[in-house]
Structures are given as structure tokens and as C-alpha cells.
Amino acid sequence: MSHLERLPRKRAYLMCPPEHFTVEYAINPWMDTTVAVDAGQALKQWESLRATLIDLGHVVHVLDARPGLPDMVYSANGAFSVDGTVYGARFRYPQRADEALAHRAFYDTAGSWRFVAPEHVNEGEGDFAYLPAAYGGIVLAGYGFRTDPAAHAEAQEVLGRPVISLRLIDPAFYHLDTALAALDDRHVTYYPEAFSPASRRVLAQLFPDAVLADRADAEAFGLNLVSDGRHVILNTDAIGMGRKVRDAGYQPVHVDLSELKRGGGSVKCAVAELRP
């Protein structure tokens, strides 16, 4: 595909400001409770990410932060929407449980969403990705650390889209969105070693032209990106990943999210895509 064919599509996103963001507990390998978060810097970086998305022509809705939920800034984890249907989240750890309720309240009051509450543990877009133009529209779903594999079958029933289960095997990449990202409506990038050998074979079969990342890309949270089909928003540490997406015909846009990385997240974690 030539560079001229990489066309952006206007998106709608949901973000939540890090007004109460701290690292009070450690539920992933990146969280260090001994290092203080610079709250002012975190908010400044978040605002820069929001402004970047708006400047690129996208709509950004803002979910009000709630006291006592320091990880709420990672709004991608709160639900997963496809064609107006929302499959709600159910968090693995009790510290984050109430975030799911805040997200449900947003969908219940914002437009004509059909919200379905889950029975099984899942962490929204943290472990689900949607490719509307691949194979008629498929969902890629991660499991191994956070999301219960039974949630994949539940999501398929709720959303009416084929769900491909992918097993994550490296604790450093505990959510699908730390190991794989959609670059547009049919193409992905991923770090193969984050997945089981069988899942790697599945990905290679489905996406023979994928952009393959290495461990340095993944550790820089270079796969925790947001793309509109042309512009790929990455954190400033992900230099190698930026080169890879540029070589594939996309336009990298780097944003500093160093404070949010302290909680184990980057660009994608902070941005939920709304698919009405």
C-alpha cells in the first residue's frame, strides 16, 4: 500500500483526566509505589494528548474523574464498544471495580448506546481490539493476566462479531493493548513474543503483512498507541516504533506521557474509542 492510501478516519474518543492519579498499589510490573507521581505534570501531559487528538480532527468526550479511583485515567479499560453496542468491563482487581460503574453511567446518559453488563471479568479495550474492515469485522481479544477467556465468548454473543482469542504469556505485557494495536481498519502491529506460540501462528495467518515490533518497542509502550488510519499517536520514548510505522506509510505523532507510564499505561490506555 502506498503512503497516499493511508487515510485518516474521524474518530470519537473518551478520556478521563488524571485528577486523582497516583500509584498507591502495584497491580502490574510497571507500578512502583516508592516513586511519587508528579500530579501537575501528569495532567499537563494528559491535556497535551487530548489537544493532539482534537487538533487531528477527532471528537474527545471527557469522563469526570472520581476520588478514590487513581487508575481511572486509563479510560480504555472501562468498556468496549462496537456499532453502538457497549460490552461493559468487570475489573480483575477490586481497587478498580468502581471504574466500570462510572463508564456505564457515561453510556447510559450519552446518546443511544445499548449497554450490556458483563458476567465475566474483562478490562474493556485493554484486552479487546476491533478491526471493522478485516474479515468483515473481527475482534481480537487477549487473555492470560486480566481478562477471563470466558469473556471472549460473552463478548461475541453481545457484539455479534467473531472474537479471536489470543493468549498473552509475558507479565510485562499484561493487556492486549500493550502487545498489539490496530493501525487502521484492517492492519495491525504487534510484538510476537508477548503471545503464546499458537497465538503467534494465528496472528501470522490473519495478518501476514503486520508491522512486527521488538521487545524494545514493547517496553517503551510503543504498541500502546492510538491511530486514526494515518496519524499514529505514540509516546516520546517509542522512537523505534515511530520509525517502523513511518516506514509502513503512517505518520507518527509523539506525545510525552512519562507520568502515566508510572502506572503501567501510555497513549492507548488513556483513550477509549467510541464506536456508535
UniProtKB/TrEMBL annotation:
Origin organism lineage: Bacteria, Bacillati, Actinomycetota, Actinomycetes, Micromonosporales
The species is: Actinoplanes siamensis
Q: What is this protein called?
A: Amidinotransferase
Q: Which NCBIfam families match?
A: DiMArgaseDdahMtb (NF045659)
